[in-house]
Amino acid sequence: MVNPINGEYNNLPHIGPGNIESFTGKLLNNVKTVGEDGLISGKFQFEKDDIIYGKINPQLGKYVYAPYKGLCSADSYVLRGKNDLKQTFLYTLLQTDKFYKYSVSVSMRSGMPKINRSELSAFDFIAPTKTEQDKIGTFILSIEKLITLHQRK
């Protein structure tokens, strides 16, 4: 977590769940900089190609593959693959029906539905080889880019 008050991060984009379209992994056109948003509380710093996952109300399906460096809401997790798990493959896992059902089931408790870090880390899946992960993840990202291009037309 970083403190955005000192101005060091003012020119970086700030992404919160309200900037992410549900179930598509797309950023909306409403992303502002840290300075424009006038942030006063701690935020998570993310790097290009990190995954930002909205932990509040997981049934909304808020996730994005970060196209640049910035800060994100404390209502999100910054995800980075470990133990040979490729980022692009991790991103595709978040889009699966199996992960969606899991995230919703573990987040249903009194008050605001939320998935905590230990529940997120406990998600069980089988990963193919690193080469296959790269192929799957790259393929999914290229399809998403193609869809975005066609939608803009």
Write the layout of secondary structure elements.
Elements: E1 13-15, E2 32-33, H1 34-37, E3 44-46, E4 51-54, E5 63-65, E6 70-72, E7 76-79, H2 87-94, H3 97-107, H4 117-121, H5 130-152
Parallel strand pairs: 1-6
Antiparallel strand pairs: 1-2, 3-6, 4-5, 4-7
Helix pairs in contact: 2-5
Characterize the structure shown:
This protein is α+β, with helices and mostly antiparallel strands and 153 residues long. The protein has a single domain (4-152), classed as DNA methylase specificity domains (Adenine-n6-DNA-methyltransferase TaqI, Chain A, domain 2, Alpha-Beta Complex), CATH 3.90.220. Helices cover 33% and strands 14% of the residues. The protein contains 5 helices and 7 strands, in the order ββαβββββαααα. It has helices at residues 34-37, 87-94, 97-107, 117-121, 130-152; strands at residues 13-15, 32-33, 44-46, 51-54, 63-65, 70-72, 76-79. The strands form 2 sheets. The protein has a 4-stranded mixed beta sheet. A 3-stranded antiparallel beta sheet has the order 5-4-7, with helices on one face. Helix 2 packs across helix 5. It starts with 12 loop residues before the first strand and ends with a helix. 29% of the residues are buried. The mean pLDDT is 92.
Q: For the record, what is the CATH homologous superfamily label?
A: DNA methylase specificity domains
**General shape:** globular
Number of separate domains: 1
Q: How many H/I helical runs?
A: 5
CATH architecture: Alpha-Beta Complex
Beta strands, count: 7
CATH fold type? Adenine-n6-DNA-methyltransferase TaqI, Chain A, domain 2
Helix content: 25-40%
Query: Which structural class fits the helix and strand makeup?
Result: alpha+beta
Order of helices and strands: EEHEEEEEHHHH
In whole angstroms, how far apart are the ends? 39 Å
What does the oligomeric state look like here? single chain
Instruction: Kindly report the average pLDDT value.
Output: 92
Kindly report the spatial arrangement of strands forming the biggest sheet: 2-1-6-3
Strand content: 5-15%
